[in-house]
């Protein structure tokens, strides 16, 4: 339009732009590769993954979110898959492996429609329609109401979440600890119930002992080392309630 003028660079010189069917297939393959990494961590026969950090430490786990946190990826679609697992862990706290495997299968199912020259917006529209249908079924005939005061029913729900974890051997102990911890930090104000486990509940690991020694501590725990032989080993704190006049009740 303006001869003689130098071109204006909007993007950096190292930016590489790709489009078309090639990029669509690359996005699908990236999502499928992330799903294949943790596919074997799903189910009752899940296998553990051995992770090694840069310092040489080794961690063995079958938690999908923990594995994906240690993976370094460059592809944008693969990063989106990892963000899905992180969001699932923050919002729900369970099902990170399942959501990644499901997303990978949905991408794989869409590949055949792209080969049929179907537009991506048409595929996405049908996925959204399927999502609405699933929500209606889950909120309707497939949902089972659970009374939060029924500890047995709540225990069955929690037990289904740890059935594929290493701690499933001590399922009853873990379920009771989880339910007691949630009931301890649960707040009810103005008819609204709030359970903020990220702020008010914390898991402390102390070397020694066994898993059966784990228990709920209703209070604040301070991990203090003994720095002097005359330090007290046991301190009992007695709390008292005062009324508005400052008198001890």
UniProtKB/TrEMBL annotation:
<dbReference type="GO" id="GO:0051082">
    <property type="term" value="F:unfolded protein binding"/>
</dbReference>
<protein>
    <recommendedName>
        <fullName>T-complex protein 1 subunit gamma</fullName>
    </recommendedName>
</protein>
<dbReference type="InterPro" id="IPR027410">
    <property type="entry name" value="TCP-1-like_intermed_sf"/>
</dbReference>
<dbReference type="Pfam" id="PF00118">
    <property type="entry name" value="Cpn60_TCP1"/>
</dbReference>
<keyword id="KW-0067">ATP-binding</keyword>
<dbReference type="GO" id="GO:0140662">
    <property type="term" value="F:ATP-dependent protein folding chaperone"/>
</dbReference>
<dbReference type="GO" id="GO:0005524">
    <property type="term" value="F:ATP binding"/>
</dbReference>
<keyword id="KW-0963">Cytoplasm</keyword>
<dbReference type="InterPro" id="IPR027409">
    <property type="entry name" value="GroEL-like_apical_dom_sf"/>
</dbReference>
<dbReference type="InterPro" id="IPR002194">
    <property type="entry name" value="Chaperonin_TCP-1_CS"/>
</dbReference>
<dbReference type="InterPro" id="IPR027413">
    <property type="entry name" value="GROEL-like_equatorial_sf"/>
</dbReference>
<dbReference type="InterPro" id="IPR002423">
    <property type="entry name" value="Cpn60/GroEL/TCP-1"/>
</dbReference>
<dbReference type="GO" id="GO:0016887">
    <property type="term" value="F:ATP hydrolysis activity"/>
</dbReference>
<keyword id="KW-0143">Chaperone</keyword>
<comment type="similarity">
    <text>Belongs to the TCP-1 chaperonin family.</text>
</comment>
<dbReference type="InterPro" id="IPR017998">
    <property type="entry name" value="Chaperone_TCP-1"/>
</dbReference>
<dbReference type="GO" id="GO:0005737">
    <property type="term" value="C:cytoplasm"/>
</dbReference>
<keyword id="KW-0547">Nucleotide-binding</keyword>
